[in-house]
Each structure stands twice: as structure tokens, then as C-alpha cells.
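From the shared-data thread, chain only:
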Amino acid sequence: MKLPVPRRIFLWFRGWRVWKILRALRGPRLSFGTQEDFDNESIAVGIKKWLRRAAYWLLVPTVSVALYIIGQRVLGSATDVDGVLRDVLAAASLTSGLLAAGLMNATSQTKELRRRRVDELRASQEALQPIQRAFDALAMSLANRPRPTFDANSAALRARAGWGVGKSLEHFMHNLGRVTSGWNTHGEYFGGGKLITVEQIAEVERALSDMSGVLLRRKHFMYLVEDLTGTPAGKVNTLDGVRLTYWGGVEYALNRFRPQTDDSWQLVSFWEDLINETHQLAVRTLGLAVEVHYHNPTQLRVMFTHLAWLTVVGVGVPLAAVTFPVLGAHKPGLLMVGVGGLLLVLGSTLVMLYRWITQRRLHDEGRLEV
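Structure, as C-alpha cells:
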């Protein structure tokens, strides 16, 4: 049954992408969704950024005009406008110099902080590479593992459920391939000093998270154990004692970063612990990679913008009023622009400096989410 024409027109109009972007403007950040949803959110974030910039650049002239009008109406002729203008000019000049020196120091500290993050990223990827090689050896071992004999009833049940025998092991090996893909394209020895990219480490982190989730829940790992041993999935209750590999090449790869003293490396439980530990390393490496590759000192740029406005309203305006006699009738308004603008820009700059110092402390403590 067809909908009425007005209803169809309304649904077509409501399906325009612009409305989805407008909803993303006021909604929270997405944690899951389709690729179109994330694209709309990215567009919305860009719109918010440009709106904030436009509001800032329009706010300062608007406030300056308002201060000028107030000064022209409030400040009387008894006020020593010339003397106050000279005092404001001296104070603003000193403040601008101090702020410029502080921003230069902040810039150098930001560069030093980024250098430290690059060193930490190199150390993390160096710790990750031998583990990736061990996973690569494990994938080779599983690829050559003999196929077990499966229970006919269990195989039939899995076939009817659309998850035939061998599917869990195939999915597990696919994740191993995602973890080991491109391990030799970065690092000092193999990659010529290249840093791991955000896309690479994000793929590794997602694969490790997927494998960790499979080995955590019985409803998932029971099918993997059946694919490995042939034991019917309904009879699998634990991972204890389940052997994942026998190949000595895997032990050799493990000995490069964690020497083995027994045969525990053959068990699934050993690899579950290693996967969880490697996932924590991958999460830390992903955070460092995002911070290094998408370094964006936005707050420093904003503080330099504040310095520019401070120079204009605190130095330029009083200097013009004192230098040019033709502006004598406008001196009360210009004095209010200089004093009010100086105080407003200084207050905003102090807020930005406080936020920068706080984030620097969180960076040093390793508690800043990026």
C-alpha cells in the first residue's frame, strides 16, 4: 500500500543529509554507527570549529565598539584621559612582552613534549614488533595444523546455525593476520626508522580486542576449541589444557622477547594472557600514534591570537590616541577600549594558560585521553 503523496514528500524532505548533519551538531559523539554517521559527525565537528572561529572574530570587534560607546558616554572631561592612556600603553606593552616570552617558552615545551611522545611511540612499537612476529609464527602453525575429526551431530547443528565447523578457527586466523599485517613496514631495523601509522595500530588494536572477546566468553570459545580439537562445542566448558600449537618455530619467536621454561606456550590459556597484555600495549601505542601523527597545537594558536588582540587593543589603540591629536574627541572611547579590551584579553589568556598547564600535567602523568 502506497503512502499518501504529502507523507511521501515529507519523508523525502526529512531524509536529506543536511538534517542528519544538524542532528549531529547537537548530539553526543558517536561510539558506534555506520560510515555515513561518522562522516556526518566529522562534517558537524568542522562546522562547529568554523562557527567558534567566526564567533570569536566577530565578538572582539563587537565588544570594542560597545566599550567605545560606553567610554564616550561615561568618561567625563574631568578625567585625565591623556595620562591614563599613557599608563595603559606602558602596562600593555609590558604585558605583551611578558606574554610573548611565555608563549615562546610554551612553544618550545610543546615541541619537547612531542619529541618525548615520538620516543615513547618508538619504544612501544619496538616492544610490539616481536609479539607480532610471534603471532605470525602462530598463524603459520595453525595454517599447517592437521584437521581433527568432528562429531557429526555437532557439525550438523553448527551447519544449521550458519556457523559451520572451521569457521571460528578461520575467523581467529583472520584476526591473527590483521595483527601481523605490515609489522615489517615500521621500526628501526625493518622499516628504516618509520613510525607506525594510526591506521596500522588501530587495525591491530581492533583485532586483538576481537580475539580477547572470543577467548573471554564460553559461547564464543567453545566453537574455537571444537575447531582445534574436534570436541563437541556443547561439552567445552573451559580453555584449560587446550593446546593451540606444537610448532617449535612459535617457541623460538616467543623466546626473542619472553624466554620459555616449560610447555605452557602451547596452551590457549597462555595465548589468552598474551593477547590481553598485547591489547593493552596496542591501546597505549594507538594513543601515542594519534597524538604524534595528528599533533595540533590549537591552544597555542589561540593564545597567539590573544597576543595579537592584546597588541591591537592594549598597545595600538592607546598609541594612536596619544600620537594623533585629531582623535582628541574620541579619546574617552578609545581609553575604554584600551582598558576594557586589555582586561578581557588578559582574563581569556589566563584561562587558556590554565587549561594548557592542566593538560601538560595530565600528559606528564599519562592520564590525558587523546
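Residues 124-293 form one domain.
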